[in-house]
Amino acid sequence: MSRALDLARRAWGDTHPNPMVGALIVEKGEVVAEGWHARDGGPHAERAALAALGRAPKPGATMVVTLEPCSTHGRTGACTEAIIAAGIGRVVVGATDPNPDHAGRGLDVLRAAGIEVRSGVLARECADLNLIFNHWIATGGPLFAAKVATTLDGKIACRTGDSRWITNELSRTDVMRWRRLFPAIAVGAGTVVHDNPRLTSRIEGREEMCPWRFIFDGRLRTVVDRSMAGVYSDEFRERTIVVTTDHSGEGYIKKLHSWGVNVWVFQSPNQRVPIDAFRKRCVEERIAGVYFEGGAEVVSEFLQQRQLDYLFHYRAPIVLADVKAKPAFSGLRTEKLAQAVRLAEVRHEQFGDDALVRGRLVYPEKLFVDETTFSLG
Ligand SMILES: NC(=O)c1ccc[n+]([C@@H]2O[C@H](COP(=O)([O-])OP(=O)(O)OC[C@H]3O[C@@H](n4cnc5c(N)ncnc54)[C@H](OP(=O)(O)O)[C@@H]3O)[C@@H](O)[C@H]2O)c1
Fold first, then answer.
1. Which atom of ligand 1 is nearest to the CA of 296?
2. Burial letters 218-239, b for 16+ CB under 10 A, else e
3. Which of 128, 163, 186 is the last residue of a domain?
4. CA distance 224 to 251
5. Range of 348's domain?
6. Which residues surround ligand 1 with Cβ inside 6 Å?
7. How many C-alpha atoms does 194 have within 13 Å on its Cβ side?
8. Minimal CB count within 10 Å: which of 82, 245, 263, 322?
9. What strands lie across the sheet with 240-245, from one edge to the other?
10. Contact 185/293 with Cβ under 8 angstroms?
11. CATH number, domain at 165?
């Protein structure tokens, strides 16, 4: 299954809106064929492995696959049918189908055809591989994830704003991988003004790739002139979407359009985009996941409104010990640990001396907003 996971990862970022899946065929303890789902619309991993074998599997052959084989007719036909027709004797499955209406159905179909089925092998790793896809299928909405890079005492910048770089190069390379996986990245106006980030995925040996780039700017203060932000003038500017409110000046919106930049305008009682309306628009546009890279204000606002689903927290072995340094999150009044936001399905990874903790956010019944430190604008 570890090998099948490695095969699945070869298509990292290339399969949207489909999941990454890897499969192999084993005869008498030997791997004789490998396959993976390379891109949306292409053959599923099971069919790719059968095609790679190029002959009928020997009687009693085993197929190992990271995700439960599909049992419904999509564009490529049900994989359960292909497995049965090929005469596979045993199927070993990692994760079950994330759609609760389908979960286990593929396994039942295989069993009914007399195939021995074992499921749940490295299930956690196999499910983790498709965390965006799984969330989209299970909830019908996008996965909103935040990435923060902090010191050991949870700061994202010094009191002067100095923030480059807190984490090491290995951590930053990992961020590039996630940028490739998420269909969209988002930042606030503050981060654009302060850092002018490129917001593309740059991985050695691969072509630079640009997901959708959301800029949250409720009053279009980043739109003074084009040179203010690379995301408005670079070769990927058609992938930039400015997210703003109906309080923004028509002239600025026209200006963005004339540069080839997209604009989503939301009705709002103030200069903040209502986050639930933004989520709804992502569903309409079939954007399955957004990777929020800050800054502190945007991610705190999302957290405060229970709109963050997932957190990537990179921590560097640095201590600022300065109460005026910028914290990653603020705005809540958490008086008891029982009121804290927690992570579930936690995973730990090490990048040199840095550590990544990531997981799904679990909110307490009630969040208490601290009106003295946070304003919604
Ligand atoms: N270490 C890290 O992981 C990391 C990552 C990114 C950034 N940073 C650092 O964080 C700092 C920037 O953070 P920041 O908190 O100052 O700024 P920010 O969160 O990037 O941007 C805040 C601004 O975004 C706009 N905004 C926020 N929510 C909005 C909404 N719902 N609708 C529309 N617009 C919205 C508002 O603009 P208006 O006020 O104009 O309405 C707000 O002032 C920089 O120092 C940067 O280097 C660190």
1. 15
2. bbbebbeeeeebbbbbeebbeb
3. 128
4. 11
5. 139-362
6. 148-149, 156-157, 161, 163, 166, 187-191, 194-195, 216-219, 221, 271-273, 293-298, 301, 377
7. 14
8. 322
9. 262-266, 240-245, 212-216, 184-188, 289-292, 143-150, 310-315, 354-362, 342-351
10. yes
11. 3.40.430.10
Instruction: Return the half-sphere exposure (C-beta side, CA atoms, 13 A cut-off) of residue 12.
Output: 18
In a domain, 106, yes or no: yes
Could you give the CA distance from residue 347 to residue 264 in angstroms, rounded to a whole number?
34
Question: Of these residues, 27, 30, 46, 204, which one is catalytic?
Answer: 46
**Residue among 305, 303, 307, 364 at smallest CA distance from 339:** 364
Question: Between the CA of residue 360 and those of 30, 317, 334, what are the distances in Å?
Answer: 37, 24, 19
Query: What pLDDT tens digit does each residue of the chain (377 aa) get?
Result: 999 999 999 999 999 889 999 999 999 999 999 999 999 889 999 999 999 999 999 999 999 999 999 998 766 679 999 999 999 999 999 999 998 878 899 999 999 999 999 999 999 999 999 999 999 999 999 999 999 999 999 999 999 999 999 999 999 999 999 999 999 999 999 999 988 999 999 999 999 999 999 999 999 999 987 888 899 999 999 999 999 999 999 999 999 999 999 999 999 999 999 999 999 999 999 999 999 998 899 999 999 999 999 999 999 999 999 999 999 999 899 999 999 999 999 999 999 999 999 999 999 998 888 876 544 43
Residues 350 and 316 placed together within one structural domain of the fold: yes
Work out whether strand 240-245 and strand 262-266 pair parallel, antiparallel, or are unpaired: parallel
Tell me how many domains the chain contains.
2
CATH code assigned at 59? 3.40.140.10
Question: How far away, in angstroms, is 37 Cα from ligand 1 center?
Answer: 37
Is the distance from CB of 369 to CB of 332 less than 8 angstroms? yes
Phi, psi of 60 (to 5 degrees): 85, 5
Residues 145 and 310 sit within 8 Å (Cβ to Cβ): yes
Residue where one domain finishes, among candidates 74, 100, 128: 128
